[in-house]
Amino acid sequence: MLEIVEDQIAELKKLWKNKRLLLHQGLNLAMIVFSALMIWKGLMFLTKSESPVVVVLSGSMEPAFQRGDILFLNNQANPIRVGEVVVFKIKDRDIPIVHRVMKVHEKASGAVELLTKGDNNRVDDRGLYAPGQLWLERDDVLGRAVGTLRYVGMVTIILNDYPALKYVLVSIMGLFVLTNKEEA
Amino acid sequence: MHTYWVRLNAVFFYGLNVLLGLSCCAWVSCLQQDLDFHSDLPRPVVDTVRVNELLSLRAHGGVDRALLSFDVQADLTPAFHWNLKQLFVFVLAEYQTPKNELNQVILWDRIVETEEQAKLDERNIYVKYALIDQANELRNTSINYYLVWDHMPVTGRLFMDKGFGSKKILPKEYF
Questions:
Q1: Domains and CATH numbers, chain B
Q2: Distance from C-alpha of A129 to C-alpha of A141, rounded to nearest angstrom
Q3: Could you give all domains of chain A from N- to C-terminal order, each with its CATH number?
Q4: CB proximity under 8 Å: A 58-77 to B
Q5: What is the complex's ipTM, to 2 decimals?
Q6: pLDDT, tens digit, for every residue of B152-173?
Q7: Radius of gyration for the alpha carbons in chain B, expressed in angstroms and rounded
Q8: With 0-12 CB in 10 A as exposed, 13-18 as middle and 19+ as buried, what is A66?
Q9: Nearest CA to A101 among B57, B138, B129?
Q10: Which residue in A99, A105, A124, A161 is the catalytic one?
Q11: Where are the alpha helices (DSSP H) in chain A?
């Protein structure tokens, strides 16, 4: 372990002397970061949703979705219908909620009011909404779930539970990218 | 050099890619059944969704509320395949009122996890969620009853399918 660290330090020192290589590796790192960002922003554009992929954090939709499943969202304009699983956000609350639409009331103007409920919950979500709020509106909805993958989100959950791990992981990865030698 | 780390890293991320690829394959393997293109596969059948008895219709806290019981007979077994975790089955009441162009209310739902449970034969079951309007416009309203099932796969696309059950007009007066 110590050996690896020493190796890394030696590599970094070498890099520091060779400015051209340093620049190259720096650009490499930037490439990785920016392509991740581009994919995310591209998905945002395609799905019209501010968060195209979400991780399920609670068991309120079990057995359909468990903690750690990821959902792909679509927020294009077509109307929301009953039975769809939507992700919505309540004012003044940070964490979005994934629940199923149980009621839809749509006016001729297209304005829609929704009531949601978790499959695993006994009652509807009025208790979760803002005080006095009876219905969700279209703007509260971040998107409807269109696809699912299992377990992938566990990484996110672990990183959220242990924030220190996030920084350790990111710095290790950054270091490896910087010192990674290209085999031409 | 740190070849162990590099190898571990490569194996881990290659493994992730393989898993992702297999998940996609799992989804593709069931596409024919899901999309029903030129196949002779049996389709889910909805025989009956109809009101058995209307128990009450009255104003309740300013909004109309109807309590009823109904019969459901359907065979959803063909919707099942190995990549399906569950069906979320529900009875839907759909109607139009002067206030709202479209009202959709779920009256009853059930999570079906195995093929054996997918043959529904329920008689005279009571609503799980009352038929509550957003205003007081339920009287003399024609209501369409559907059976809808939402496919929830292990990995893949979420989508719904529905079958029409029946249509019935609620009485003109409260009772």
A1: 3-169 (2.60.40)
A2: 13
A3: 7-47+163-179 (no CATH), 53-154 (2.10.109.10)
A4: 63-65
A5: 0.86
A6: 988 888 889 889 999 999 999 8
A7: 22
A8: middle
A9: B129
A10: A99
A11: 2-17, 19-47, 154-161, 163-179
